[in-house]
Write a structure and sequence with these properties.
The protein contains one helix and eight strands.
Length: 103
């Protein structure tokens, strides 16, 4: 999907009623974790996660119903979600996780 198509999809989604999709990652030794995906044009800076006392990082993101590809960005390195087995291959030869939002 091209950038313009993603932007149009994003604007259409934002017009719908959005609710929180929760992203979590167990990374007790990490210093900085964010989530990036097609919902934020893969920007690693716009959705930083917060670290809890147990070492789990968490973030709730307002997303309209749909299917979203994402990955975590941990201390400057991409990482897949080890708790989510649903993945898709990309044209770049990598694998993205998939989050399905239903209401």
């Amino acid at each position: 999907m091209k950038a313009k198509e993603r932007r149009i999809k994003w604007e259409l989604m934002m017009g719908r009623k959005a609710k929180g999709a929760v992203f979590t990652l167990w990374a007790p030794n990490a210093n900085h974790v964010s989530v990036a995906g097609d919902f934020n044009e893969w920007n690693t800076e716009t959705h930083p996660m917060k670290k809890g006392k147990t070492g789990a990082w968490m973030l709730s993101v307002n997303l309209a119903p749909g299917s979203y590809q994402y990955r975590f960005f941990v201390d400057g390195e991409w990482q897949n979600d080890p708790e989510n087995p649903e993945c898709v291959s990309t044209p770049l030869g990598t694998v993205n996780n998939v989050k399905r939002v239903k209401y």
